[in-house]
Request: fold
Amino acid sequence: MNEKVKSGVSEHRPKPEAKVCVVTGGADGIGWACVQHFAAEGYRVALIDLRASHATARAAELGEGHLGMGADVADEAAIRATMSEIAAHYGRIDVLVNNAGIGEPKAATLDQSLEAFDRMFAVHVRGTFVASREAARVMLAQRAGAIVNLCSIAGRAGIPTRNAYGAAKAAIESLTRSLACEWAREGVRVNAVAPGYVATELVDTLVRNGQLDLAAIERRTPLGRLAEPLEIARAVAFLASDAASYVTGTVLNVDGGWLAYGGV
Ligand code: NAD
Reply:
């Protein structure tokens, strides 16, 4: 836990003016696309992931000045320690992307277990709450910051057999609004994106296991295809940027028109 790589940080301290972005679940998929996008924009990025060695390897891949750290977002003590290490290292946190998440295998409600339900809520809802609270200790002191949460079309429309996932994402929407209202006058904005189906390992696994029908998704999506992770990262970066300075408490659908579609 809290294993990290200092990609040249001891010899190459980040420039004081470089902004800092923290991405949870940053080692793969949408998180990794966000990490790369923010790094390309000049941010110092700290990526936190369940898989510590993958996180450290990703940070090394990015180059000097970035951090890769291992922690489970559902573990309060680990996230508190990790976030305070990041703050101590860089002296600031400008952006937090609450991205860490897990998929839910399709199962009839009568066959769903409480353990799986609770784990889904622990990763998504508790993880988003704890990481936001800990990052906000720094952001509120700075009187500046932006948080972007990963929601889903599954939290905005009923998707049968995926109760916990949809409910967890809907709960993150609620957190997005309440935190946005609480911190608005202290310079911290909180928003979310709600992606449709995105071409990542999370979706690949469900497709491989016969849990998702790719052709049916493409037919059901007005744009006719899955999103690329970068297309979600760009929306996240917009909400985190000064271009969205008057946007807070909102959930932006990035779903190829999936939620707009009402046809048969
Ligand atoms: P992914 O499985 O490709 O990557 C998720 C990353 O999070 C992995 O690196 C994984 O190790 C990490 N992770 C998982 N559990 C963690 C934990 N407890 N603590 C720390 N790290 C953890 O997933 P993805 O498709 O990129 O999804 C990212 C986010 O986007 C999730 O919140 C997901 O619910 C959401 N989302 C995805 C899709 C999609 O179609 N892929 C659609 C809507 C929303």
Observations:
- Helices lie at 29-40, 52-62, 76-90, 114-142, 163-183, 201-208, 214-220, 229-240.
- The radius of gyration is 18 Å.
